[in-house]
Amino acid sequence: MSSSSGSTAAATPILKEEVDIVIPTIRNLDFLGMWRPFFEGYHLIIVQDGDPSKVIKVPEGFDYELYNRNDINRVLGPRAHCISFKDSACRCFGFLLSKKKYIFTIDDDCFVAKDPSGKEINALEQHLKNLLSPSTPFFFNTLYDPYREGTDFVRGYPFSLREGVPTAASHGLWLNIPDYDAPTQLVKPLERNNRYVDAVMTIPKGTLFPMCGMNLAFNRELIGPAMYFGLMGEGQPIGRYDDMWAGWCVKVISDHLGLGVKTGLPYIWHSKASNPFVNLKKEYKGIYWQEELIPFFQSVSFPKECTTAQKCYIELSKQVKAKLGKVDEYFNKLADAMVTWIEAWDELNLSGVKSEALSNGPAK
User: Fold this and answer.
1) Glycosylation annotated at which residues (predicted)?
2) Tell me, what CATH number does 160's domain have?
3) Of the candidate ranges 3-12, 270-279, 320-329, the one whose mean pLDDT is the lowest
4) Total domain count for the chain?
5) What is the pTM of this model?
């Protein structure tokens, strides 16, 4: 794969006034050079994790805001504890601040991938295509996404369901380093994903999936309040389950609200594998707890009064406390943080008044 962006003509930005790109990072963002043809013209929200005194360098020519932990504390005040520290879940702060309809979030070790013909993949454009076309969660189409060019609904697909439902989230995949947990990393240290599958599919209603946050887009207006990556990282007994948690919450809420979630294209190139021994330390409670978490989410139901993502999320927090609190005290803390997250969301998004702290912009 090429690391040069010079050979690619700049893409014409689509919906550039309706999209924010959110990037969590602890390092200089040299990787943006490769994405320049696809990201220039869009607004970036960069959330710096770790030491806020460290200077993060961003290549010239990008329209961006850079926020660090001092900004999180300044904007959210006593609610700042709901944003994780020293974990990629800090990206949620960018979701809170955005006022755009669509969010694309990508990790800083993800580069531009190429399709089998050698053409560089415009991941953002494909995500927007996914989000702008309907989903079909209630009946599976064996030719996958029937709204893509060159395909349609197959014989036997009910005509009453062919209109589809709005798409809340688009989950992209990765070439090179697979998104494996630590035990799988340890037994398959050299495994690489070289399979490019030219497909997009709607995840059926009632089916959960492991959501990876490194190549993800969503409709913020439809599902943004449920895109909370939980309490992870420093001071917490678990890490690397932030996107998993958000994915399970998003899926059960989307199912209830009649929304769809797609997975498949676009691919990005995941450049480096994290240390499996470090990962195991972060993950081991999650690996143990998930055997109770999955049945919990499979049994979640919402009353008909839950008509918005916010209402669903508050109801879900109550069920987390009632049913998972006995698994570990951590889940009581998490349930409280879920409520705090919605309070922060409502304050920054529903009041119609930009807070004074936010109006001042990122700390200099």
Assistant:
1) 155
2) 3.90.550
3) 3-12
4) 1
5) 0.94
Which residue blocks in the chain are alpha helix, DSSP H?
A: 32-39, 69-76, 92-97, 123-132, 182-187, 220-223, 242-257, 276-299, 309-319, 330-349, 356-359
What CA–CA distance (Å, rounded) separates 279 from 298?
26
Q: How large is the average pLDDT for residues 302-330?
A: 98
> Strand 260-270 to strand 110-111: parallel, antiparallel, or no bridges (unpaired)?
antiparallel
Distance (Å, whole) CA 337 – CA 80: 10
What φ, ψ does residue 135 adopt, rounded to 5°?
Answer: -115, 160
Mean pLDDT of 115-138: 98
* pLDDT score, position 237: 96
At 132 the three-state DSSP class reads: helix
Q: Are strands 200-202 and 260-270 parallel, antiparallel or unpaired?
A: antiparallel
Sign of CA dihedral 319, 324, 328, 330: negative
- Neighbouring CB atoms inside 10 A of 112's CB total 23
What pLDDT score was predicted for residue 12? 77
Q: Which two tokens stand for residue 175?
A: 């070439």
**Domain encompassing residue 310:** 17-346
Rounded CA-CA distance 35/94 in Å is 19
